[in-house]
Write a structure and sequence with these properties.
260 residues, alpha/beta, Rossmann fold, eight-stranded mixed sheet, 17% strand, globular, binds adenosine-5'-diphosphate, binds magnesium ion
Length: 260
């Protein structure tokens, strides 16, 4: 099961990715949580101590990238070997979750042909296509690093959406991009929802997409964030955790029936 979490900056992607990863892990699945967001704060949201998560993200390990991509003649491989990356760079977290800090490509963009980008695409494809475990990717909004090939292996794209016009705009843009690259199941989770009106706002604006549920605005998230701990550890029965548990069940049902 491969889940990619997207959405505008600040909507709650990392909070949702971390909590969902641990809830799925508690159900006995082996989960790989991939931090593909440049701000690299998934470790904290998962409740992994900074000392345990201080290692370099894989894309920042220049020696390793060089070793895997450079050919003796100075050219580089478009298909570098990546299958041992989890073993080498994975960080053990709570509840059966292994964190992989990806980092980001400091230069370049969509059409960049630099070795780091080739490596990033190979790695994302490998993680999304190649493994049997549950993979949850905390993604950057643009979907840039995702190739068409990898998109085919994505079982579920979860776009976290706040009840604001800006967030809805970004969701619609990502939805368009996701169709372009061939993502099959695009779904939305409302977050920081404070009223029935907020829910209706999201549902009306996104009437053409499947909405898995709405997460309330929850002070526990803010307090856990200030303390640098996971909301699941701060208050396991906080409203957001209870709602995410319901969404987790929908996702696991989908996993067995293949319908969200
Ligand atoms: N349901 C929620 N209730 C209250 N605050 C939230 C909620 N979800 C996220 N936040 C807060 O919003 C901010 C951004 O969340 P984060 O998960 O880092 O977003 P993203 O990864 O999309 O940038 C954080 O300060 C977080 O504590
Ligand atoms: Mg984030």
């Amino acid at each position: 099961m491969k889940i990619v979490i997207v959405g505008k900056g600040g909507v709650g992607k990392t909070t949702v990715a971390a909590c969902l990863a641990r809830l799925v892990g508690r159900d006995g699945y082996s989960v790989i949580a991939v931090d593909a967001d440049p701000s690299l704060n998934l470790a904290k949201a998962l409740g992994i101590a900074p000392s345990a998560a201080s290692s370099k993200p894989v894309l920042f390990d220049e020696e390793f990238i060089k070793e895997r991509t450079l050919l003796p003649n100075g050219a580089y491989r478009l298909n570098p070997r990546v299958e041992d990356v989890i073993e080498r760079f994975g960080i053990r977290g709570p509840d059966n979750v292994t964190l992989l800090k990806l980092g980001y490509v400091k230069k370049g963009g969509v059409r960049c042909l630099c070795p780091e980008y080739a490596f990033l695409r190979a790695l994302l494809s490998h993680l999304i296509l190649g493994r049997k475990d549950v993979v949850i990717v905390d993604m950057v909004a643009g979907l840039e690093p995702m190739s068409r090939g990898a998109a085919r292996g994505v079982d579920l794209m979860l776009c976290v959406t706040e009840p604001t016009a800006k967030s809805i705009d970004v969701t619609q843009e990502i939805y368009r991009l996701s169709k372009d690259i061939g993502v099959k199941n695009f779904t939305v989770i409302g977050n920081k929802v404070m009223s029935e009106e907020d829910k209706v706002f999201i549902e009306k604006a996104l009437s053409d997409v499947k909405i898995l549920g709405h997460l309330p605005y929850d002070e526990n998230v803010v307090k856990a964030d200030r303390l640098g701990v996971a909301v699941l550890d701060y208050n396991p029965s906080s409203p957001i955790v209870l709602e995410l548990n319901k969404i987790k069940k929908i996702i696991l049902n989908f996993m067995t029936s293949k319908k969200p």
